[in-house]
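Data deposition worksheet. Section B asks for the primary sequence of the deposited chain exactly as it was used as input, without tags or linkers unless they were present during the calculation. Section C holds the resulting structure in token form. Section D is free text for depositor observations; keep each observation to a single sentence. Incomplete worksheets are returned to the depositor.
Section A, Depositor: J.P.
Section B:
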Amino acid sequence: MKIQTHKEHFTNPLYLESGRILEPYDLVYETYGELNEKKDNVIVVCHALTGSHHAAGKYEGESKAGWWDSMIGENKPINTNKYFVICVNTIGSCFGSTGPMSPMYPTDKPYRLKFPVITISDMVKAQRILFDRLGIQKVEAIIGGSMGGMQALAFAIEHPTFAKKHFILASTYATQPWAIAFNKVAREAVIKDPTFQGGNYDPKEIKKWGFSGLAIGRMCGHISYLSPDSMDKKFGRNYVETDGLYELFGRYEVERYLDYNGNNFVNWFDPLSFLYITKAINNFDATRNYDSLEDSLSRIRSDIFLMSFESDLLFLPKEMKTIYTTLKNINNKNDIKYINIDSDYGHDAFLVEYDKFAHYIKEELR
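Section C:
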């Protein structure tokens, strides 16, 4: 599979939903497969909160493949023998696209807290501008899970003729209080940690000495991404063998798991990007600029494939079903399908349990 990573620089202003302007800005993206002559064999894959443009394959010297490697590649469900796949790192992220730690033109100093609040619609608008530059006027499908699913839905509503099909996995039409509450705890852990220094932290110092607030924020996220059943199967009540049961700071295996993932997260994700992107997720509401959800979804002109996961505690299956029933009630003439996957893994099932849903996507792309 041919993998290429690119960066595009834009000097025209990006007008944001907040009324502010981002200028200039960069977008990093990765492509897989070959673009045909007509430029109409394109599938766009949108990443989630801590994801990046690196969705599949391995870089030279890399041991871990991209975050959706099981789905993207030669003869895989998203078949790069047939399709040209693009995954764009969203604005606000910390993997090359313009974000809060990018230099604020015309200085070389980072934006930090002067970076504008961005929305899912802003992320999508920037990608649409990129595709125009690449000469891609229509794509076969847009696919995303979690925050990626929010982007896919925003594409369908705000750019209704751009894609033939939209696949929305483990997502919602508007972030609900339960998910906002989880994000609140995670955000507070970051902001209230003295290491944050009002956003003026030194990234090198963080990597050297750690950032407990960001680690705790990641722990909180991990709890919401799993489910009681998956935690029970993965850890049970097992205790760390080297920790004494009657030592105050002795740990159960689930605690060690959260410690590891939280502290490791500090090494590869930026605290301000975490705050800005969780804010974008909290703000997501497909009805905000419309009279109602019916009004919003009535603008869709593409086929919609919705997929929820039974044990998802972050974006409940009923939220996805609401999208489905609303589309059906407004007599949308396109093909609208919804399936709830029988899974006890939790929200992250769309990143893990490929055997339960990959064949549905493969069939719909066919």
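Section D:
Residues 3 and 283 are 33 Å apart (CA to CA).
The domain at 3-174+285-365 is CATH 3.40.50.1820 (Rossmann fold).
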